[in-house]
Amino acid sequence: MTVETFSARDSDPKRPSPWGWIAGLGLALLLWGIAYSQLVPISERLVSLLPVDRSSHFGQALAFFFYDTPKVILLLTLIVFAMGIVRSYFSPEKTRAALAGKGEGPANVMAAGLGVLTPFCSCSAVPLFIGFVSAGIPLGVTFSFLIAAPMVNEVALGLLFGLVGWQVALTYLGFGLGVAIVAGWVIGRLRLEGWLQDWVKDIQTVGSVAIPDEQLTFVDRIKLGIDAVRDIVGRVWMWIIAGIAVGGLIHGYVPADLMVRVMGADAWWSVPAAVVMGIPMYTNAAGVIPIVEALLEKGAALGTTLAFMMSVIALSLPEMIILRKVLTMRLIAVFIGVVGTGILAVGFLFNMLFG
Amino acid sequence: MKDVKVLGPGCKRCEATEAMVKDAAAKLGIDVKVEKVTDYAAIARFGVASTPGIVVDGKVVHAGGLPKEDALERWLQA
């Protein structure tokens, strides 16, 4: 019986050969490279076609916009595609199995790392949270995962790398993971399991259910990468354009000395102000990074800018409204306090080190 | 009669998954009863941590993201 099904699957005439897909992928990458290398000439040409003085404020803002929009979208497409393939090897269920039964410290580190790699959408936040906690994963470890997942994502890292530089991207990766690990560990130490909503505590654990592995071919993984591009780029492109428009305005109009005074390293109060301002702002990494790039260029301190970015992404109101279903207000307040403190520390540390 | 449950709080993908199950069943001529499970506690009791999930005759066959069409047909025929 089993032999029969296996042989039937192997000789399946409907199964397409992967070579067409691989050739298509190669061609797409080649086109991508050509487009990327032509960004400057094309954007300058576009500005010169318009009846605007290139050296005026408006001309500078336009040049920034025409150069950054295609650049960000090209970078994002490539990164999201690659991450879509990497993530097809991970799933929340596998991550949960890997984390169950690990001791608190190391599990926090693992949870933060897996938070970056595991496919996860915010509409799955509640099932994931309950699934983790009911499988016996400590609350603090679950938080390490939930903090790292949105904050240190491929979109943020890839765009920082492309627009601001690899040093800043790596530092962001390190400190983002650091905040997730330490904040989760602190929340674990506080022993707040009693502050979950009652119905969450009452869920009978079934342990981990092994979901039969759906065998994916390489072509399936390429398709998953394309799906990820369609889904993520399709969802965030408006945010990107809005972010770049704001970045362009900052670039063209805001005088550098104003930015140094307001967001420079000497203005110590700017770090907490940036964190507080970031909470009600809802955008994702794709929208906020073009703004970050423009702010940095105008002399804003790196720590202040990173604190702003982390706050916008990690402490978002919509996510808290979703988590309100499983967490009590007290627990949400602790979550904001601990993560906010971590972000503040990152901001001050950076301003001290690089200020 | 197959008993199929689609687990998910009601996001777009969950609805798409439900439609896929119905389409596949109609295409194969299989009699199915499709039920949507939107209650978080009920979803958690199936041991699923990512949605949408699919349960066929009480067994979890899929979790997270849209199912593949050929896999879906295999589960319904099994």
Features:
heterodimer, A: 355 residues, mainly alpha, 18 helices, disordered N terminus, B: 78 residues, alpha+beta, Glutaredoxin, four-stranded mixed sheet, 3 helices, 4 strands, globular
Number of helices of chain B: 3
Low-confidence stretches of chain A: 1-13
Q: What is the CATH H-level superfamily of chain B? A: Glutaredoxin
User: How many structural domains can be distinguished in the coordinates of chain B?
Assistant: 1
Largest interface (CB < 8 Å) = A-B, 33 and 24 residues
The multimeric state of the shown protein is heterodimer
| Shape field of chain A | flat
- Tell me the distance between the termini of chain A: 70 Å
| Strand arrangement across the biggest beta sheet of chain B | 2-1-3-4
The averaged pLDDT of chain A comes out at: 81
Biggest sheet character of chain A = none
Gap between N and C termini of chain B: 12 Å
Largest sheet of chain B: 4 strands, mixed
Structural class of chain A: mainly alpha
**Mean pLDDT of chain B, rounded to whole units?**
86
Structural Rg of chain A:
23 Å
| CATH first level of chain B | Alpha Beta
The tally of domains of chain A stands at 1
Helix proportion range of chain A: over 70%
Characterization of the model:
Chain A starts with a helix and ends with a helix. Chain A is flat. The model of chain A is unreliable at 1-13 (pLDDT under 50). The longest helix of chain A is centred in the middle third of the chain and has 36 residues, at 218-253. Chain A has 355 residues and is mainly alpha-helical. Chain A has 18 helices and no strands. Chain B is an alpha+beta fold. Chain B has one domain (2-77): Glutaredoxin, CATH 3.40.30. In chain B, strands 2-1-3-4 form a four-stranded mixed beta sheet. In chain B, strand 3 and strand 4 form a beta hairpin. Chain A binds chain B through residues 91-93, 96, 119-121, 123-124, 126-128, 130-132, 134-135, 199-200, 202-204, 206-209, 211-212, 214, 220, 227, 325-326, and chain B through 7, 9, 11, 13, 40-41, 43-51, 60-66, 68, 71.
